[in-house]
Amino acid sequence: MKDSLSKPENAKLKLVDTVYGDDDDTKSYNEAQGLFKKYPNLKVIIAPTTVGIAASARAVQDANLVGKVKVTGLARPIRCATT
After folding, report:
1. CA distance 45 to 63
2. 44: phi > 0 → left, psi -120 to 50 → alpha, else beta; which?
3. Which DSSP helix (H) or strand (E) runs through 26?
4. At residue 70, what are phi and psi to the nearest 5 degrees?
5. How far apart are CA 50 and CA 28, in angstroms?
6. pTM, to two decimals
7. Is the dihedral of CA 41, 77, 50, 33 positive or negative?
8. Which of 2, 45, 46, 73, CA to CA, is 20 to 30 A from 23?
9. Confidence category of residue 83, pLDDT binned at 50, 70, 90
């Protein structure tokens, strides 16, 4: 992460904190909520798991921060079955 932040295209980004959701939905959700309170100007959450991304996105929605806080990260693609 720190290597990516040193690239010129990311010059305006600042890593403010690292928290761990431990791939647990409730913990990830609560950690995201904690980040909103601690950093009211937070712009992005980067989550390394599917669980973390989903929980963080739900926390963004519940806090009415859609459009203000973006969520991204690494996730396993979801395969959809059609009938």
Report:
1. 14
2. beta
3. helix 25-38
4. -100, 150
5. 11
6. 0.83
7. positive
8. 2
9. very low
Residue 26 CB contacts under 8 Å (≥ 6 apart), including other chains: 55
pLDDT for 7 beyond 60? yes
Show the tokens assigned to 1: 């992460």
In the chain, what is the straight-line distance between the N-terminal and C-terminal CA atoms, in Å? 41
How many CB atoms are closer than 10 A to CB 13?
13
Q: How far apart are CA 3 and CA 25, in angstroms?
A: 28
| 10 neighbors 36 (Cβ within 8 angstroms) | no
> Could you give the CA distance from residue 67 to residue 55 in angstroms, rounded to a whole number?
16
